[in-house]
Design a protein that fits this description.
Largest sheet: 5 strands, antiparallel
Structural class: alpha+beta
Strand content: 15-25%
CATH class of the largest domain: Alpha Beta
CATH superfamily of the largest domain: DD-peptidase/beta-lactamase superfamily
CATH topology of the largest domain: Beta-lactamase
Distance between the termini: 59 Å
Strand order of the largest sheet: 7-6-16-15-14
Oligomer: single chain
Number of helices: 15
């Protein structure tokens, strides 16, 4: 009983301390800026200088402009999940169900605060000639209900060369702050985009093929990744599972407990991969292979030409409208920079990227042939990842940083880019269809609005 009380005290204490930190002060300012009046009130800050000795609301108090020194005070019930940077999808095996204020707080984190300590490794400007979508819109009442009841920010269905369903969170939900210009984080969608960049690097001759070995990069010598085939690394089958925490195998190193997402390749090699620990080569999902491959491309291409490569892909080919950027790990410093696979982009630009992949596949371009080779070389996932609630668990195979093999559709060429919290872009190459969702939290019925849409015939 004593242990339980201590645990409860720690949880309450951590949240109450959080309420007094810089984070909450900045969140309160953001609430005021966006006129979420029900969640804050304005008071007066502790007086300083002359104001300290003046009677509040007196003539001299106003004369000395003491009323201008205001303090925004939060008035909400936010669960910070022990100061986590993300909303947990599950706690002790149960789905997490955050309230509206908590979702709003994490939206602010995801769009603003989580990236204040990260420099931009690659800043890609808007295209001079952005791709313009065609529309033939129809109403879907169930999608509208999901927008009202869940943490969905955006839902789009693209088929037959047009956007046919296009819904956003309404103004009384999140639509006040999530717009067509909002750059939202990719999460693991960035893994798949890293693979697409690799395809272009191969097609331009910078990298030999998916069967090339990483045997020419001094930075990873004497590590488990040295001399490994690219296809094994991008299939998450490098036999590296011994290096990652059993409690959080996707994003924590076993040796140091550090976040995979916040370390440069150099620091990871120096601290986490000193000893070679071989494991059986099988699908073992973690966050290290995507930035490893992306930084290998930079090594092969050179930093200046790498920016040119990204501009060719996203500005000239994809035709992004609002710009996008990839972030660096927090531990990056002069002389030790790495790109992360996480990027931020607008909702239509996410769809533009998905459409570019669809076009490559259907037009059998060099990059399309690359995507087809990934499908041919896909590997089976492990049974423990399976569930019937989301795209991550409804896919049975993995192909070069893409989820494939949708349940009941294993033979169909369907690629899914799946990011934590509900960034899910499902590309049906055969039927020319894309289902795109963006969300703060994965509490929506993806099986009905994603899986079932892809499964049904035309």
């Amino acid at each position: 009983m004593k242990k339980i009380l201590i645990a409860i005290f720690i949880l309450i204490f951590s949240n109450s301390v959080h309420a007094e930190t810089r984070l909450t002060k900045e969140f309160n300012k953001w609430l005021a800026k966006n006129e979420f009046t029900q969640y804050y009130k304005v008071g007066f800050a502790e007086p300083t200088g002359k104001c300290k000795d003046l009677e509040k609301y007196s003539h001299l108090w106003y004369y000395n402009k003491c009323d201008k020194d205001k303090k925004i005070i939060g008035n909400y019930d936010v669960n910070t999940y022990n100061n986590s940077s993300e909303i947990p999808e599950k706690i002790q095996g149960k789905d997490v169900k955050p309230n509206y204020e908590t979702l709003l707080y994490y939206f602010w984190l995801y769009v603003n605060e989580n990236w204040t300590n990260n420099d931009r490794y690659s800043d890609i400007k808007p295209s001079d000639n952005p791709y313009q979508f065609k529309f033939d819109l129809r109403e879907d009442k169930y999608i509208k209900k999901q927008m009202q009841k869940t943490a969905l920010l955006s839902y789009m269905l693209y088929e037959d060369g047009k956007i046919v369903i296009d819904e956003m969170s309404p103004k009384n939900k999140f639509g006040k702050v999530f717009t067509n210009e909002t750059q939202f984080h990719s999460q693991s969608v960035g893994k798949s985009l890293g693979s697409y960049i690799l395809g272009h690097a191969i097609c331009k001759g910078y990298v030999e093929s998916i069967d090339a070995k990483l045997n020419d990069w001094p930075l990873i010598e004497n590590s488990i990744y040295h001399n490994q085939k690219i296809i094994d690394i991008i299939n998450m089958a490098a036999g590296d599972q011994a290096y990652f925490s059993s409690k959080n195998p996707s994003n924590r190193y076993k040796k140091t407990g550090r976040s995979v997402s916040n370390t440069t390749i150099k620091k990871a090699m120096e601290n986490e991969f000193k000893e070679i620990k071989k494991s059986k080569k099988k699908y073992a999902y973690n966050n290290f292979p995507p930035p490893l491959i992306m930084n290998y491309i930079i090594f092969k291409v050179g930093e200046e030409k790498y920016q040119e490569l990204l501009d060719d892909i996203f500005r000239k080919k994809v035709g992004i409208e609002h710009g996008m950027y990839f972030v660096e790990p927090e531990t990056s410093e002069p002389g030790d920079r790495s790109t992360h696979s996480t990027f931020l982009a607008t909702r239509y630009d996410y769809l533009r990227m998905s459409k570019a992949m669809l076009d490559d596949w259907q037009n059998d371009t060099c990059e399309g042939k690359y995507l087809k080779s990934l499908f041919e070389r896909k590997i089976n996932k492990n049974a423990e990842w399976e569930n019937n609630k989301d795209s991550f668990g409804l896919t049975k195979s993995y192909a070069g940083f893409f989820h494939t093999g949708l349940k009941g559709m294993q033979k169909r060429p369907i690629f899914i880019m799946d990011g934590y919290g509900g960034q899910i872009f499902t590309i049906d190459f055969e039927r020319g269809r894309i289902v795109a969702t963006i969300a703060i939290h994965r509490d929506f019925n993806w099986k009905k609005i994603g899986y079932s849409v892809i499964k049904k015939g035309k």
